[in-house]
Write a structure and sequence with these properties.
alpha/beta; TIM Barrel; ten-stranded parallel beta sheet
Length: 304
């Protein structure tokens, strides 16, 4: 299982993104990821970082598709792919209903159908081919012309069965967040693998991101994670996955404990079929930060 870092929490400036990506590369991590939230544009930031930092995969975890027409996203993704020398993992997904409707004023009706039509347009455009989609929710006619660039690997954030079927049939895999061991083992990995197999695709990539903290104060660390990530326990898609683990909130499925406890948790994730663990480091002090970084870097180098 490869080890990467989710740098979203500290991505408040381009300089910070570049510094974080460089530290990841120098420490031997396989990948560096940014979420598209309400700050820096993740693809633009990765394009800039990729020009400065070589030899590490750069991924989005994830870019919501609703605010960007497929042609615009294809153009930006291919530009980032060119800027990074072909090191982009393009993670995309649907945003949440409360964001799409209340903040952006778009419809959230039939989200799976929306994403399927979106992919019908995005996939050929990423290959440099024309799209001609006249769907119920998406219209996309045209292509994107960028010379000497290969399509980035496409990962589709998916939690429900229909979304996992879509991710396994047309994507290279999925990206999860706040999804615990039981949900991964009994739900995500089997549904995704079956869809990929039916489509004749190789074993799909499962990129799992979870909060992590190496600490001697497990209860205190979990309390901090519970406070910081309380919102995710209230969003319907994540709530459904937490329920599969019998978890009250994200802290209950976080990777927290001393070095032996955290290592055992990571071993279980690898055994489940997680191909990439992307650490969302959630520490409260220098001691926890240093211990967490040291353990993850050691495992990253060993897995390389």
């Amino acid at each position: 299982m490869k080890i990467g870092i989710n740098g979203s929490a500290s991505a408040d400036s381009l300089d910070a993104v570049i510094a974080s990506a460089r530290l990841c590369a120098d420490s031997g991590f396989s990948s560096f990821w940014l979420a598209q939230i309400f700050g820096l544009d993740a693809l633009t930031a990765l394009a800039v970082a990729g020009r400065e930092v070589p030899d590490i995969e750069l991924g989005t975890a994830v870019v919501p598709v609703q605010p960007r027409h497929p042609q615009m996203l294809a153009g930006q993704a291919l530009t980032t792919q060119a800027a990074t020398g072909g090191r982009l993992a393009l993670g995309i997904g649907l945003s949440h209903q409360i964001v799409v409707e209340s903040m952006w004023g778009y419809s959230y009706q039939r989200p799976r159908s929306y994403l399927a039509e979106y992919l019908d347009a995005l996939l050929p455009m990423l290959r440099g081919e024309p799209a001609d989609v006249h769907g119920e929710q998406i219209t996309a006619v045209g292509s994107v012309g960028i010379a000497d660039v290969t399509p980035p690997e496409l990962l589709i954030a998916a939690l429900g069965p229909k979304m996992l079927e879509l991710a396994g049939s047309v994507g290279a895999g999925t990206i999860t967040w706040c999804t615990g061991e039981r949900a991964l083992a009994d739900h995500i990995v089997p549904h995704l693998g079956a869809a990929a197999e039916s489509a004749g695709h190789p074993t799909p990539r499962v990129v799992a991101s979870l909060p992590i903290c190496v600490t001697s104060d497990t209860d205190g660390a979990k309390e901090a994670i519970a406070r910081g990530l309380a919102t995710y326990g209230q969003l319907p898609s994540y709530r459904a996955m937490l329920d599969l683990d019998g978890a009250e909130g994200p802290a209950d499925i976080a990777v927290v404990g001393d070095e032996d406890t955290v290592s055992a948790h990571l071993d279980r994730l690898a055994a489940i079929g997680v191909t990439d663990f992307v650490a969302a480091i959630s520490t409260r002090n220098d001691d926890e930060a240093n211990r967490t970084h040291r353990l993850l870097a050691t495992r990253a180098v060993a897995a390389a």
